[in-house]
Amino acid sequence: MTSTTQTANRALWLSSYDEPLSIKELPIPEATTGTIVVRILAAPIVPYAYLAHTGKLAAFRLPLPYVPNPNAVGRVHAVGPDSVRLQPGDLVYVDATVRARDDPNVWRDGSLQQFQKLPLENAYPLNEHWLLRELGYPAPLLQAIAYYSVAAGAVMEAADVRAGETVVVGPSGGTFGGLAVEVALALGASVVALGRSEAKLSAMRDTLAAGDRFKYVVMTGDDGADAQAIIKATPDGAGADVYNDWSPAELAGPPYLAAAAQTLRRNGRVVLSGGTHGNLTIPYDLAMLKDLKIVGKWMCAPATLHRLIRMIERGALRIGEESGSRLKVFSLEEHHEAVEYARVNGGWRSYTAIAPNEA
Question: What's the pTM value of the predicted model, to 2 decimals?
Fold first, then answer.
């Protein structure tokens, strides 16, 4: 079953890490058993896309050539014979995390094309009535689910945050750290956001309007003083249950970890979710005496993603422009401008997307 008579599949093709992306016409994939083909409406362009496209990120340096970019939002174009729920025309989120049944290496071509083939289990149905009509979100905005899924993996899955707990997040001004703050608040936790810019932290407080459940601390680099300031910001000065670290790749190490770890209560959890390649700086005796749990987390499991989508569909987690999001959409032909725009304008709630097809 298919949803359109379109015969061409225009794609962005990465054939060399030393040359820019080019537009290439590919065949429209066919849906076979266990697969689905999605007509892509919008694919997120992350701030570090320029590094991935030039081979400067080892984790994304795949054998060439291929169509880059993993996540997307789109409509089902065709389904294999074993599809039970999804049908052509359905609105879906395309998840990047491939858990192949036998060989994950076969799933190479991403979402910067008009039609993407993927495993059936990587397409998550979206409630069009709630998202597009009741909440009024434009379809391209739903690509933000890709970013929230990373934060959900850390906060909902690895940290298992519960209502009434206290979560410290830092640095919180970037794309994922800010969303981790949002997810924790949506779960009913109190949050202490860490950063060096009081202007950014104050703006986040005003945007979220979470009342006393949101506090922030402007970090100074003095671990002892910063730890005391964080503890003071927690409810009743009782300390925190979770520290979620989002140190970016450009930093030599996690700058807030040593201070934040001191604020954790007994059985506290440290979740590492950033990109730094530096070493940890948690005192051994502190981790031992407080029974701290230290875990790394990247992306999330299907059950967590389903739960996150339900939170967004029902308005428990607001992601629209009315709640502070900014979205800039480019065409396939404008891909160079899109990558540069994302590099310069990345940050919390600032999204860049490429739309290979019209909605």
Answer: 0.94
